[in-house]
Amino acid sequence: MVNYIEAATAPAKNTGAIRIYGQDAFAGMRKACQLTARCLDELAAIVKPGVATDVIDRFVFEFGMDHGAYPATLNYRGYMKSSCTSINHVVCHGIPNDKPLREGDIVNIDVTYVLDGWHGDSSRMYPVGEIKRSAERLLEVTYESLMRGIAAVRPGARTGAIGEAIQSYAEGERCSVVRDFCGHGVGSLFHDSPNILHYGRVNDGPELREGMIFTIEPMINLGKPHVKVLGDGWTAVTRDRSLSAQYEHTVGVTATGCEIFTLSPGGLDRPGLLPLQG
Questions:
Q1: What percentage of residues in the chain have a pLDDT greater than 90?
Q2: Which of 22, 124, 137, 264 registers the highest number of CB atoms within 10 A of its CB?
Q3: What is the pTM of this model?
Q4: In terms of residue numbers, what domain contains 93?
Q5: Half-sphere exposure for 62 (CA within 13 Å, toward CB)
Q6: What is the CATH number of the domain that holds 216?
Q7: Which residues participate in the annotated binding site?
Q8: Given this model, what pLDDT does residue 272 score?
Q9: In a domain? residue 251
Q10: What are the Peptidase M24 domain coordinates in residue numbering (predicted)?
């Protein structure tokens, strides 16, 4: 049985109950999420061949510090970086290092800032120089998968509607959906209930209610969906070494649908790519 709880009276840990937030929380999330979105906008000019992901990570840290925010990943369960940078066949949780990006790479940069106690969580894909058409198509399919999942969010629907919208589109485009990782509740906690699966059936999962806040962050592969985690305990890669991509937004359920808190203020939700038509 799914339990819902008013966030203002909830304990400061994930108990499995789904928090329902009020307008003050939505206002706090807008600020935190927009700071994250602004950072991701700035990175569009930094990501290029020859730039090490450590340089990107340093920028994320300094940008946060300059704006009174702290990177949520830094020292989280032993993770020692301010962002995740996942290149090519890395599905998620890639650790920044001193290896330079190369022409033709694709990289996901995942940033979460804590600002005034609220967590703003988002990620985007960045093409590094000129990329192959197959990689560009994967980015297009992944972004469209995210937006179709978001379009399914409304009070009375179930979380499975999000997963069904993503899975049916991505698989229809001959791509696969990673099942090992999922979206999650977010707000005053970094990771909270419910889990948001990126596959499923329309009537599966908890009912969506006004005031819920969570991420939607599908990971889409050109090959098979299977992944493995490397020996560092963090880096997840495709088992068949096929390209993987991910886009992530934080959303809040409203009376009529949802609000996307992490939209790019500069229109760079798909940096380096032309706007989708239609």
A1: 97
A2: 124
A3: 0.97
A4: 17-260
A5: 8
A6: 3.90.230.10
A7: 93, 110, 121, 184, 191, 217, 248
A8: 81
A9: yes
A10: 28-255
CA–CA–CA angle 223, 226, 227 (5° rounding): 110
Residue 117 lies in a domain: yes
If one counts every other C-beta atom within 10 angstroms of the C-beta of residue 69, the result is 22
The pLDDT-based confidence of 277 (bands split at 50, 70, 90) is: low
pLDDT digits over 39-55, tens only? 999 999 999 999 999 99
Q: How far apart are CA 274 and CA 133, in angstroms?
A: 13
CA distance 189 to 203: 27
Overall domain count for the chain = 1
Residues at the binding site for a divalent metal cation are: 110, 121, 184, 217, 248
Q: Which residues are annotated as a binding site for substrate?
A: 93, 191
Residue 10 lies in a domain: no
Which letter does DSSP use for residue 221 in this model?
E
Query: Nearest-CA neighbor of 56 among 241, 271, 234, 221?
Result: 271
**Residue 208 and residue 194 in contact, taking contact as beta carbons nearer than 8 Å:** no
Phi/psi for 162 (5° steps) reads: -65, -50
Rg (alpha carbons) of the chain, rounded to whole number: 17
- The amino acid at residue 115 is L
> 10-14, 35-39, 84-88, 245-249: lowest mean pLDDT where?
10-14
Describe the crossing of helices 133-151 and 159-172 by its angle, rounded to 10 degrees.
Answer: 150
Look at residue 78 and tell me if it is in a domain: yes
